[in-house]
Inverse folding.
């Protein structure tokens, strides 16, 4: 059976995190998420948990007597080598009083667990609002691995909205004496100020008495690499080779932005370490002044500008910033609702402000000046200048220190060589109008991660 095509691609999987995620605002209808966690059982078996969340306020309710009823459907198909290995459907119904109000942040939760052999799988998930007739679909690959033999290993790191000791082993969210409810959206703040985490550790070395011993270090890292939250754990003795690690951190002092939750487990007997991490996002409803006692005029003006924008306009604005956004920021932004996206964009540029003491954000101003320049000078056909090769380099690396421009002769194609003297010890970019149509393509660069072709001069001749 051939794989279906889906309308919205997912973001790539992190090394330790298998993630499928989807988000649309109320303006577009359905707002829903899915997150995936892997718990290897043996070298040939792994339990895969898929957690779903649907924003109640994004569903359309129909009146039925004294009640209002919403109906949704979640479909999941899992493929391996283009063959379906699992197909399931979950019916979700929410009933409330006709006079009841849905509070922001309320979600309908579902969870399913599966057992798979190691390999590469494709998860295809679709959400349907049965009343509104709206559907959203997502898909992504999932690497399933077995448990490592004679080595320290662990599950994925769960970021939870709720965690407490529990003896209710019949609960779907019960794990090793705890009730752990994952936050599939990974969005915190706005009433969800405590982040709980949970993971399982396997393969602890045993001391002479048969016991194991571990310590756990926890850190929250921001987009700039700083660690506003960090603590070193003490040693704990456990029976056997496996244990569950868990804890909570308060996010109350964190600004809005993208963060990474990091947990490092040290095996006290063997000396080995296991590093687990997962990105999350903090949303704030209010904007803090960057200078105590003085309102931040520039930030307030930008916030006011965003407050007037529709979600489509916000999405277009973020798309313009894709060249300077981090991978985590690109992954988090689509998961936010309308207010979250507005706050995200304010904080996005606030983090990049080189001089917060000045009334203007110079980084934002310069970036959009470069977009204007690119659109004016590099546009080709229907392609806007900022989306061309020269536009991308200009936005990602800034203004070049020197440009060698040749318009071309009868036997030579037009080309430009841009030089950046202060970046990476000196780098250059070579653009050639290979078809003599006005479209300059990047054919060679000495910058890290860029295309390299030592025979680039061959492109200069027709």
């Amino acid at each position: 059976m051939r794989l279906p095509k889906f309308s919205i691609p997912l973001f790539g999987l992190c090394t330790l995190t298998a993630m499928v995620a989807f988000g649309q605002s109320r303006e577009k209808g359905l707002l829903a998420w899915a997150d995936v966690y892997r718990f290897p059982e043996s070298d040939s078996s792994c339990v895969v948990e898929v957690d779903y969340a649907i924003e109640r306020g994004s569903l359309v309710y129909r009146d039925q007597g004294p009640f209002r009823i919403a109906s949704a459907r979640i479909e999941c198909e899992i493929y391996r080598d283009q063959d379906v290995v699992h197909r399931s459907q979950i019916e979700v119904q929410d009933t409330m009083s006709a006079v009841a109000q849905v509070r922001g942040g309320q979600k309908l939760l579902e969870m399913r667990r599966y057992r798979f052999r190691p390999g590469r799988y494709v998860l295809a998930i679709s959400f349907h609002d049965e009343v509104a007739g709206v559907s959203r679909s997502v898909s992504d690959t999932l690497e399933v691995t077995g448990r490592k033999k004679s080595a320290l290993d662990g599950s994925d790191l769960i970021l939870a909205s709720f965690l407490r000791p529990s003896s209710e082993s019949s609960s779907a969210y019960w794990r090793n004496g705890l009730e752990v409810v994952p936050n599939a959206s990974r969005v915190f703040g706005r009433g969800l100020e405590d982040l709980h985490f949970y993971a399982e550790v396997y393969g602890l070395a045993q001391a002479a008495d048969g016991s194991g011993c571990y310590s756990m270090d926890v850190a929250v890292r921001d987009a700039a690499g700083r660690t506003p939250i960090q603590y070193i754990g003490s040693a704990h003795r456990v029976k056997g080779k496996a244990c569950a690690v868990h804890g909570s951190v308060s996010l109350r002092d964190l600004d809005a932005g993208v963060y990474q939750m990091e947990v490092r487990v040290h095996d006290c007997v063997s000396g080995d370490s296991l590093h687990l991490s997962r990105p999350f996002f903090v949303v704030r409803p209010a904007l803090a002044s960057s200078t105590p006692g003085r309102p931040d005029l520039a930030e307030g003006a930008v916030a006011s500008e965003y407050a007037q924008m529709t979600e489509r306009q916000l999405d277009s604005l973020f798309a313009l910033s894709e060249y300077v956004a981090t991978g985590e920021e690109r992954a988090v932004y689509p998961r936010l609702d309308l207010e979250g996206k507005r706050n995200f964009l304010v904080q996005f540029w606030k983090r990049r402000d080189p001089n917060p003491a000045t009334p203007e954000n110079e980084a934002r101003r310069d970036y959009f000046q470069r977009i204007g320049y690119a659109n004016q000078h590099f546009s080709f056909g229907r392609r806007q200048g900022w989306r061309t090769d020269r536009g991308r380099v200009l936005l990602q690396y800034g203004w070049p220190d020197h440009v060698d421009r040749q318009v071309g002769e009868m036997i030579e194609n037009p080309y430009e060589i841009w030089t950046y003297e202060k970046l990476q010890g000196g780098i250059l970019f070579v653009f050639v109008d290979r078809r003599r149509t006005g479209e300059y393509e990047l054919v060679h660069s000495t910058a890290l991660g860029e295309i390299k072709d030592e025979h680039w001069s061959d492109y200069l001749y027709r």
In short: The helical segments are 297-307, 311-320, 327-332, 338-350, 362-377, 389-397. The two ends are 47 Å apart (CA to CA). The longest helix spans residues 362-377. Residues 1-27, 286-299 have pLDDT under 50 and may be disordered.
